[in-house]
Design goal:
Layout lengths: L1 H4 L5 H35 E5 L13 E6 L24 E6 L2 E12 L4 E5 L2 E4 L2 E3 L31 H12 L1 E2 L2 E3 L4 E5 L9 H4 L2 E2 L3 E11 L4 H5 L3 H18 L7 E2 L7 E6 L10
Antiparallel strand pairs: 1-2, 2-12, 3-4, 3-12, 4-10, 5-6, 5-9, 6-7, 7-14, 8-9, 10-11, 12-13
């Protein structure tokens, strides 16, 4: 109000001053809106994750930093389903989800079975609904005979004293969801496995992934840094300081530049209709 009670300036000088103030206010408003959108977007639409273990090698490596689309599998409403690209998890999709045995942890695996599917593993080969899967993304790094080669006929219980619920979930799956030697995926749940099959804590060990536990799908590797599981999982002040020091010293040499901005895609329905389950399961080739 003071500027209107003081000496009146000529119109030609008052307007530029007022325009400057308006421009300043607009600039501040734009920054505030941008910051709010960034905060909203990174928590609601997109979220960053880092891969701490090798269960998805070589599709995803330890130290890959991902952007995860949290809208992909969001439940659709009566109106939003027509304007937003909601979808249900499909065979071959890579998903990020809460670990059913400890929802404070986040896992990333590949969807092998959707509700109603019959799943079995014979000599390390996965069969879905009686048909062998073609899985070029799978790696058997520990050699033949390691891990679970036949499932669910010969499961190997995984005892985790820190997560006793894991064993309970596995037993529930094996006792209540096995028909004719195959696991049957119940409604509203999914069967997920890691691409590094002999080094993956997945649905074979703790059962199914509830639909509500699925956070989203990874879409982009925005940075990849060669680090160990211990470096990424450490939470103490000393480990964090050590990791930060290592990062500053080796950022350029340990960054996997060839993986930067790499788009992550699922693998489409990979069944081979000309490879039915053999009469003698032991005769199937890995």
């Amino acid at each position: 109000m003071a500027e209107h009670t003081a000496t009146v300036q000529p119109a030609q000088t008052a307007r530029p001053a007022e325009a400057k103030r308006d421009q300043t206010r607009n600039t501040i408003a734009e920054w505030v809106v941008t910051i709010l959108l960034l905060l909203f977007g990174t928590t609601t639409l997109v979220q960053a994750f880092v891969i701490p273990t090798g269960s998805m090698e070589d599709t995803l490596l330890i130290g890959d930093h991902l952007l995860v689309d949290k809208l992909a599998y969001s439940p659709s409403g009566s109106f939003s389903k027509y304007i937003l690209p909601y979808e249900e998890p499909k065979h071959g999709d890579i998903i990020v989800f809460r670990y059913p045995a400890d929802i404070s942890q986040t896992f990333v695996k590949r969807v092998i079975g959707v509700p109603g599917d019959h799943i079995k593993v014979v000599d390390r080969v996965v069969y879905r609904n009686g048909v062998r899967l073609n899985e070029p993304y799978v790696f058997h790094k520990l050699g033949y005979g390691a891990g679970i080669g036949t499932f669910p006929a010969e499961p190997q219980p995984y005892a985790d004293p820190q997560h006793p619920a894991q064993g309970v979930l596995q037993q529930d799956m094996l006792q209540h969801h096995v028909t004719n030697g195959e696991v049957v995926v119940p409604p509203g749940e999914y069967f997920a496995m890691g691409d590094n099959r002999e080094n993956s804590l997945d649905s074979r060990y703790w059962g199914f992934v509830p639909r509500d536990y699925i956070i989203g799908k990874p879409v982009l590797i925005y940075w990849s840094y060669k680090a160990s599981t211990e470096d990424l999982a450490g939470s103490s002040v000393n480990s964090l300081f050590s990791h930060a020091t290592d990062l500053m010293a080796h950022f350029f040499t340990r960054t996997r530049w060839n993986r930067t901005f790499k788009v992550i895609r699922g693998y489409p329905d990979a069944q081979l209709p000309d490879h039915p389950v053999a009469d003698n399961p032991g005769s199937a080739n890995p």
